[in-house]
Amino acid sequence: MRAHHLLVAGVLFLASCGGSASPPPATQSAHFPVTLVGSTGVSVTITKQPHRIVSLSPTATEMLFAIGAGPQVVAVDDQSNFPASAPHTKLSGFQPNIEAIAAYAPDLVVAADDIGGLVHGLQAVNIPILIEGPAKTIDDSYRQMVQLGTATGQGAGADSVVAKERSDVAAIVATLAKPTRALKIYHELDSTYYTATSATFIGQVYKVLGLSNIADAATGAAPDYPQLSAEYIVSSNPDLIVLADTNCCRQDRGTVAARPGWSVIAAVKSGEVINVDDDVASRWGPRMIDFLRVVAPHVRDIEKQAA
Amino acid sequence: MLGIFGPRAEPAAGALIALGGLPRLRWVWGAAGFASLLIAAAVGALVGPVHIGLGTVFAALLSHVPWLGSSVSGVDPGQATILWSLRFPRVVLGALVGGMLATAGAAYQGVFRNPLADPYLLGAAAGANLGATLAIAFAPGGSFIGVNLVPLAAFAGAGAAVAGAFALGRTVTGLRTATGLILAGVAVAAFFNAIQTYVQQSQTNSLRQVYSWILGRLVTAGWDGVLLVLPYVALSLVVIYVHRRLLDALSVGEDEVVTLGVSVRRVRLIVVIAATLGTAAVVAVAGTIAFVGIIVPHTIRLLAGRSYRVVVPLSMLFGAAFIVLADTAARTVVSPGELPIGVITAFVGAPFFIAVMRSTRVAAL
User: Fold this and answer.
1) Nearest CB to A221 within list B140, B217, B334
2) A30 phi and psi angles, rounded to 5 deg
């Protein structure tokens, strides 16, 4: 279903990093060695431009390929399913195996989390590791991209991708009218009503679109990803429902409408229940723009109807 | 009572005297059980993240009573939907789940003469989790004759695990002792857990759904879930209730049941099948809720008496009331967020249980 969309994104992608296939200019190597501090506060020193990068984070994989460091990547983990050209392996970012990672002889490992003694284990075998944890804001995401640019000698590529993203976001937001009232959004992570508040990256993306997140009332349950009561969701009557559980849990407009009591919700009545790719919605990388392009027209439609 | 494992060599006459000496269910306790269930149901219907007045709750309830319903008017349709489609079925399902788990726990403790026996002892939970995981991972969104495949697979998995435990227990020990069956159940549960964990970890796409399934959920309860479990729970509760006297006899010693002219193996088989059937149905729609099957029957033993003529009916009532209240807390404490119900049952149940044990002296066990 999403194949066409992904294909288009992939083509855009390749077009945008067409120039990076040639070896990076020598001037960029002059930046090395660099010392960077990752999300968990652990600093890492990279002595020369890495050419054997292992990515254990699907988001980092997308970022690396977007900024033009793709040719330097030798292995990505089993969850990194985008872009298709990435060197997919069976490496796991959830249960990292130091030996299996070391077997690729990496000169830089990028991961989203220090799970299972990953940092300690790689430091013991002198492999530089950079943690780029889940971004909390859109600016965090940009910062990570720039940091990955510095780490890989692709600073210029990173800067231009970030600049392009900033202008794309501004262009999308400019298409939206100033609503008379804040439209309410319910973002669904699974079929038991786990959701994301504005304290998360995806929540910040909704904020950019001027939406009011019904999950923000539940920060007492969990500040980031609370589970909501069905009766609260029904009574708060969201204008828009975004299903980020289309792959994991096979939810769609039909299954949502069939849930007991949900047929009275405004979004269900008006059909504003959007399927999105679980992966795109859960990563904090450059495909955020694709996500915005899917959701924004619906926001525009609802605003039009409300006017 | 509840001598752990193995037959006890007491003379039959002594056993019958002991049986006669067990107190019957006093009406005060029966009344207290019904009252607590009624109060719990009322609290569950009245309290929730959405504030709905007492009058509206009554009107919404009345509007679904045949013949009377048409005379009720003036209920806000939004609130009526919340009450009828979301809150009431959750209360009813909670009562069925709680009553079933507590009664199944009591039955298992009686049959196996083991105070630590719970409804998941023979692998019902492990089997249900494996069945659900396989359905979620390999047949996502699948259905069978219009019913969601996941609870059906969970039910089949629970049945398969317990049947496996029985088959294993029979070949190893000939089912002569309860211990052999328990150990077979432990082995089967461990084996099923291993497969379940492997499938869960290797199918990362469905990982999230598997996790939230295993954590248990009354969150998505609807009338369809109630209808799905009702026949099994009703049948199971009736069978266990009918066998409450034989459970008393079993608790004294297997020899004594033989003296009464009843096959120990048959009693054990029937009660275990009944308890498993009900547990499997409940696990299939609500996931595993630990602890209920242990603390509710034991608290009743300590407070109201240890005869199964007391423990079985009161476990149904107080178990139901306990889960309805715990679930009400689960959806209101961090409202409009949800807490996992297992957190509430253990957090409130454990200290309460210890307080009861302290005040009644553990010797009673």
Assistant:
1) B334
2) -65, -20
